[in-house]
Amino acid sequence: MIEEVLFNPDDKTKVTLLFANTTIDDILLKEDIDKLAQKYPDRFKVHYTVDKLADKNAKKAWKGEVGYITPDMLKRLLPIPAKQDDESLLIMVCGPPGFMKLLSGEKTKDYKQGELTGLLKKLGFTEKNVFKF
Question: Where in the sequence is the domain holding 104, given as residue range(s)?
């Protein structure tokens, strides 16, 4: 999806990816994602967060976030709606059930979007701003 946006010269959408993983080694396609961020610095920002770092050397080299996603982290790294009915922002969320519950609430059993809950609701996002995969 990110490539579709970035590779289209007529699309001016700005994309921010907050990619949460357990460890650095768990980050899928990191090299490819980093290349896109370097190629499109005005349109694509990537932020990584990991639950833990393996050792002191990893701590020195790591430039991303460490720890679970928090409201403060979201405020620092993601665009926040300017007003209640701001439809110019879309946050797309995917992950395991616990992650979905924390950020946005889970989809319904019949795979509909369901009620928006979690950190994104607390930060002022609405159902119009959030899509759950």
Answer: 79-133
